[in-house]
Design brief:
The chain has a single domain, classed as Rossmann fold (3-Layer(aba) Sandwich), CATH 3.40.50. It has a 5-stranded parallel sheet. About 50% of the residues lie in helices and about 10% in strands. By secondary structure, it is an alpha/beta fold. It is globular. The mean pLDDT is about 95.
Length: about 120
């Protein structure tokens, strides 16, 4: 059985921008995929209120993971350790707190050879 995943915003943005590799990947993992509060906010920030409704419906298809106290505390520790920006630390903390793989294309902040909880599903 494949592991459950936390989708980083770049994967969803790629899909919404018509990147076939992202769409194919989402079709493969949708039943076992979650998004975080960070992912939802980052994706929706790219749309004006008139265009956000269809994107909100799309995002509602995924399991939603809020930022709770344990995630926030872990994010603070990860930010100190890796000097990540807070959104990246929160993404990593959410994935780790829930035992998920973080699926992203952000190899600059999340090099998969350094972080075993990170997967890069495709490249552009």
């Amino acid at each position: 059985m494949s592991q459950n995943v936390l989708l980083d915003s770049v994967i969803l943005i790629d899909h919404l921008n018509g990147v076939d590799a992202a769409t194919e990947y989402l079709l493969e993992v949708a039943p076992r995929a979650s998004i975080s509060a960070i992912t939802r906010a980052e994706v929706l920030a790219g749309y004006d209120p008139g265009g956000a409704a269809h994107v909100q419906q799309f995002l509602d298809r995924f399991n939603f993971l809020p930022i709770d106290r344990p995630v926030a505390d872990l994010a603070a520790a990860l930010r100190r350790e890796f000097r990540w920006r807070l959104p990246d630390a929160l993404q990593a903390a959410t994935a780790r707190a829930h035992g998920l793989l973080l699926v992203t294309r952000n190899t600059r902040d999340f090099p998969p050879d350094r972080h075993d909880f990170v997967r890069i599903p495709y490249s552009i």
